[in-house]
Amino acid sequence: MGKKLVMAQKRGETRALCLGVAMVVCAVITYYILGTTVLPLYQKSVWTQESMCHLIETNIRDQEELGGKKVPQYPCLWVNVSAVGRWAMLYHTEDTRDQNQQCSYIPGSLDDYLAARADVDKVRANFHAHQAFSCFSATREKEPSVLYRRLYGPQTLLFSLFWPTFLLTGGLLVIAMVKMNQSLSILAAQR
Question: For labelling alongside 10, which of 29, 35, 47, 65 has CA 20 to 30 A away?
Answer without folding.
Answer: 29
